[in-house]
Structures are given as C-alpha cells and as structure tokens.
Amino acid sequence: MGADLYMNQRYKSRLQKMKPEIDKSLKKLEDFTKGTIKYHREEENYFILLNKLQEKIYFRDAYNHGSIAWALGLSWWNDVYPLLDEENKLSIYKTKKLIMMIKSKNIEVSHELLEHYSSMEDARSFLDTKRNLLLTFLYTSIETGEEIYCSL
Question: Reduced to 3 DSSP states, what percent helix, strand and coil does the chain have, rounded to the nearest 5?
C-alpha cells in the first residue's frame, strides 16, 4: 500500500505512445523461459520502459519506513488529503502549498530504515533522492498546468 500520484492526461498520452513497445516486451517475457539470460535481459528492458513511462508524471510513496512523507514528519492522510478536491485532485495552487510544506521540513532517518543501509549517509541519500524525485514531479505539474490525481 502507498500513495500514488500521477498526472493522468500526460500518463495516458505517454502510455498510448509507448504501449506497442511495452506490449512487445511483455510478449517476449511470456515467450522466454524464466531464469534465463534472455529473460533477465528482457525483464531489465521492461523495467526501463516502465521507468520511462512514469518519469516525472507518476510518483509512488509506499507506506513503510522508506516513505519520504514519514521521513519529513508528514502524513499523506492528515496533511495531503485535506488539500485534495472532491475528485482527489491536487490543484496547482495546492501543489505549491505542498511544495512549501515539503521544503519546510527536515528529513529524519528512522532506526527501522537505517537497518536496511550500511550507513546513515546511505539512508539519508536514499531519502534525499526520493524527496528530489517528489519535488521534480510536483514542479512538473506546475510547469505543465496539469493537476495531480492522488490515490492515497
């Protein structure tokens, strides 16, 4: 479970363009034997395609110790949900408010997250990257003028 945020129109448009390539990759995965080098290479290609599909127009934050919201002392339900309209969309104005909320907070690395990293620096780097990805996503929404649909 987690928070899924996406710019629906841009996602649909990009999916339409990429669908033939994604379908071709999925077909290859069905045809190849799992565990083989061919399968592994095609699986890598498939994940690269998914990353391209989602880049800057989709963001996911799992409800676990790797959550950037939790690391910032925020809650998707208590802090972000009240910003949404009746269609679960985050307006451009509210996106700007969310950016201000995020920028006003310091990242706190939990002991539970730290258990998964060899150092505090590595754990902080993970969260810094996640924060930057979220901010890039939010800024893209503002730049394109597309509201963000949120499934919390």
Answer: 60, 10, 25
| DSSP-derived 3-state class of residue 75 | coil
Per residue in 6-65, pLDDT (tens digit) is: 998 888 999 999 999 999 999 999 999 999 999 999 999 999 999 899 888 899 999 999
Cα-flanking dihedrals φ and ψ of residue 96, to 5°?
-65, -40
Q: CA–CA separation, 55 vs 53, rounded Å?
A: 6
Would you call 57 helix, strand, or coil by DSSP? coil
pLDDT at 85 over 90: yes
Token output for 101 = 């909320």
Q: Taking Cα atoms as reference points, which of 99, 98, 108, 114 lies closest to residue 73?
A: 108
Q: Which stretches does DSSP call E strand in 29-146?
A: 58-62, 89-90
Q: Pull the structure tokens for residue 50.
A: 């998914």
In 46-140, DSSP assigns E strands to: 58-62, 89-90
Is residue 117 within 8 Å of residue 71, measured between CB atoms?
no
What stretch of H or E contains 6?
strand 2-6
With tokens 């690269």, the residue in question is 48
